[in-house]
Design goal:
Number of helices: 6
Order of helices and strands: EHEHEHHEHEEH
Radius of gyration: 16 Å
Length: 193
């Protein structure tokens, strides 16, 4: 059984909503255990990360970057970084903002850089935007067109806490893909050993 931690901070409930969607997708894959973990929890004891094989990182985009609480979590892992204790583990990331862009790419770049500094292996978002095939924009998988991670939209420009069906679908597919990649990579490593 492989263990995935979906580590997130959510200021308004939107990131938590999508963290649950990603976790649901990952849980749909057999032989994977998924735990939702608030970034605040890990900040107080980063050694808790050692129990997991892979991490889904989730933060709202605030002013073009991760939230302060999520940054505190990232910074709390300095001791693990010094000893490269997370090296070789899988990671991916997602973010939510009120606008279609909202500078979400900066947030994903911060997560990617964090993972690379720890020696982790990054898994992107492999889904082509479906509106290219005629699926209505609001219903399209990967409708915001991000390959480095999953981007979702929520908030004022999306009618409060209503979410585009395409973003809901992408959250599930993103989590499912990540769990499948974890199992495939784990099987390949075991074959080599």
């Amino acid at each position: 059984m492989k263990k995935i931690a979906v580590i997130f901070h959510s200021g308004q409930g939107n990131t938590a909503h999508f963290a649950e969607g990603v976790a649901k997708g990952a849980r749909s894959v057999p032989d994977v255990d998924v735990e939702l973990v608030r970034a605040e929890t890990i900040s107080t004891d980063p050694d808790l990360l050692l129990a997991f094989d892979a991490f889904v990182l989730g933060s709202p985009t605030y002013l073009g970057g991760v939230s302060g609480i999520f940054k505190t979590f990232l910074d709390s892992t300095g001791g693990l970084w010094r000893n490269q204790k997370l090296k070789g583990k899988l990671a991916c990331g997602f973010t939510v903002s009120a606008l279609p862009s909202g500078d979400k790419q900066s947030t994903l770049n911060a997560m990617f850089t964090f993972a690379m500094q720890h020696g982790m292996v990054w898994v992107g978002n492999p889904f082509l935007p479906e509106q290219q095939r005629g699926v209505p924009y609001e219903h399209a998988l990967n409708r915001l067109g991000s390959w480095s991670g999953f981007m979702a939209q929520a908030g004022h420009s999306n009618g409060g806490n209503s979410y585009a069906p395409g973003d809901e679908r992408t959250a599930f597919a993103f989590g499912q893909n990540f769990a499948n990649v974890l199992l495939r990579m784990s099987a390949q490593v075991e074959e080599v050993l």
